[in-house]
Amino acid sequence: MTAEDFRQDFPIFQGNDYVYFDNAATSQRPLQVIDAVSDFYKRSNANPLRGLYDWSVDATDRYEHARKVVASFIGAASETEIVFTRNTTESMNLVAYSYGMANLRAGDEVVITVMEHHSNILPWQSVCNKTGAKLVFMEPDEEGYISREEYESKITERTRIVSVGHVSNVMGVTNPVKEIAALAHKVGAVMVVDGAQAAPHMKVDVRDIDADFYAFSGHKLMGPMGIGVLYGKEKLLDKMDPFLTGGEMIEYVTRDSATWAELPHKFEAGTVNAADAVGLEEAIHYFEKVGFDFIREREIALTSRIMEGMKANGHVKLYGPEDPADHCGIVTFVIDGVHPHDTASILNEDHICIRAGHHCAQPLMQFIGAGSTARASVYFYNTEEEVERFLKSLDGVRKVMGYGY
Amino acid sequence: MDIKQLYREIVNEHNLNPEHKGKMEDPTIVLRGVNPSCGDDITLSLKVSDKGIIEDAMFEGSGCAISQASVDIMAGQIVGMTKEEALKMASTFMGMIKGEVTDEEEIESLDEAAALRDVAHMPARVKCAVLGWHTMEKMLNGDND
After folding, report:
1. How far off is chain B from A387, nearest CA to CA, in Å?
2. Residues of B in contact with A365 (CB under 8 A)
3. What digits encode the pLDDT tens for the residues A273-284?
4. What share of chain A has pLDDT > 70, as a percent?
5. A365 domain-assigned
6. pLDDT averaged over chain B?
7. What pLDDT, on a 0 to 100 scale, did the predictor assign at position A258?
8. Which of A259, A288, A317 is the last residue of a domain?
9. Is the peptide bond before A264 cis (omega within 30 degrees of 0)?
10. Same domain, A359 and A279
């Protein structure tokens, strides 16, 4: 199968000439995923986990089957360790509030990196403010790599929680989460991994990493929007209080008190998003059909050509690693003298979709000294022809902006 | 007008060679205006006389070409106006950009700023175009927080 073959499965690519290079924000969905969601509503729609009739039982089965598939996808020991959330942001908030609030004291430290997405900064800022714990930032080198010296110096006996993005959504670099987890555990801290940008690109094995918590979103790996995952080790989830309370997450309720349902339902208050969980399962099946090797091979080929073309342009500043293989398909850049929003608008005129702004990573923007950057991010279904169109449009930007070339 | 034409014919000149960019001596009102999602960040300085006439307008800061050009055009046009005239112009401009003001005569009253009318068809850029105007409106309404 080639990229062109896979593209046939994506309705959004048919009958138009748009080049979609904003895959790090959200991927596109194949028809199989769209159909799976639709099929749930057509055939099995009933409120899962509470009905005593066939349709509800079927809805429950399909929802719980999706959980099993997710567990196996990331190497979890059991599906009871998989909590469905809305997205990575909600997963990170769940960990910060349910685990962080209960386990942090004044003087403790939470260690993150300056490259984090806001969803792995703001929950910790908030919990640190409430508990008196201190938020400590690890800093990367110019290419985006965090050195061993850096994490060895920042993770200390005061550290209670280490929370690191597996892949930076700006630099594209993969952080050494396994090594950092080992060090975190050595000092008695828990390791939280924000896997939003990693899960769509590489085989994640939560037990190999030895992550205590691992979060990712369905929509970046071809699943529906509004379904996310939090993996947590059972022994930790067991001791944590619920994040949200209400329907379907209880064991027994009186006027004054309640006891909680078993894992993972304790963390899934209210009617669950079963249809999108079913869609996520289908996305994982599709994902496995494509294969990690193919995804990686395509990303490296496309990224290499993009970086080569940008260097040839002569007016493009590139961020992240020198090696295209370390970009996870993400190329962040600025054209000299052109604000990234203007770049994105001009590219849009040529039907090329890229992201521009701070990418929900303002501390990183401050660290690299850029108010805003442009970002092109490719996925396995993008093609060489699209890259050439992108580069050609990019080469015309300075001229449109009045620079003469 | 498509966006490439808009840049070439109006925006570039003000973005590359702004006439009103720089520091003002003794301004009477200063306010920073920011578009957090874009990173547009300007500081507008106005000198308003006791009689309520805008005697000078300057801006500093950085942002996309549309935000910079729009505030430069605005600064050029409001000098000599009363506060009330400038506020009316801001309201017409923002109405035009949001697609609420479509009356030709009203739009023409904006003079050079009317050239940005096609931003109304570029929803992603509306915030850029109105940043300077919105900042001025707050300043003249005494809402300087």
Report:
1. 21
2. 39
3. 999 999 999 999
4. 100
5. yes
6. 92
7. 86
8. A288
9. yes
10. no
Q: How many domains, chain A?
A: 2
Does residue A65 share a domain with residue A53?
yes
Confidence category of residue A256, pLDDT binned at 50, 70, 90: confident
A401 vs B contacts (CB less than 8 Å)? 7, 12, 15, 65
Positions of A marked active-site: 360
| pLDDT tens per residue across span A330-381 | 999 999 999 999 999 999 999 999 999 888 888 888 888 888 899 999 999 9
Question: CA A76, CA A284: separation in Å to the nearest integer?
Answer: 15
Closest chain B residue to the Cα of A357, Cα to Cα = B38
Q: For A348, which residue in chain B has the nearest alpha carbon?
A: B3
Is B41 near chain A, with CB under 8 Å?
A: yes
Query: Which amino acid is residue A106, in one-letter code?
Result: A
Say if residue A286 is exposed, middle or buried (CB neighbours under 10 Å; 0-12, 13-18, 19+): buried
Residue the block writes with tokens 């850096």: A150
Measured between beta carbons, the chain B residues lying within 8 angstroms of A338 are 65
How far is residue A207 CA from its own chain's centroid? 18
Residues A74 and A147 in one domain: yes
Pair A243, A105 in one domain: yes
The answer to whether the beta carbons of residues A114 and A364 sit under 8 Å apart is yes
Pick A248 or A375 by higher pLDDT.
A375
DSSP state of A163: E
Check the CA dihedral A206-A210-A213-A214 and report its sign: negative
What is the domain partition of chain B in residue ranges?
A: 3-140
What does the pLDDT look like over B96-143, one tens digit per residue?
999 999 899 999 999 999 999 999 888 889 999 999 999 999 999 987
Contact B62 A371 (CB under 8 A): yes
Whether residues B38 and A345 touch (CB distance < 8 A) is answered with no
Asked if B115 and B66 count as a contact pair (C-beta separation under 8 A), the reply is no
Q: Is pLDDT at B145 greater than 60 in this prediction?
A: no
Which numeric CATH code is attached to B3-140? 3.90.1010.10
User: Residue A322 belongs to what domain range?
Assistant: 292-400
Touching check for A341 and chain B: CB below 8 Å? yes
Q: Which two tokens stand for residue A9?
A: 């499965």
Nearest by CB: A371 against B4, B39, B66: B39
A400: nearest CB among B8, B37, B122: B8
Q: Measuring CA to CA, which residue among A390, A388, A378 is closest to residue A3?
A: A378
Q: What is the CATH number of the domain that holds A245?
A: 3.40.640.10
Answer yes or no: do A400 and B2 touch at CB < 8 A: no
Q: Does B7 sit within 8 Å of A346, measured CB to CB?
A: yes
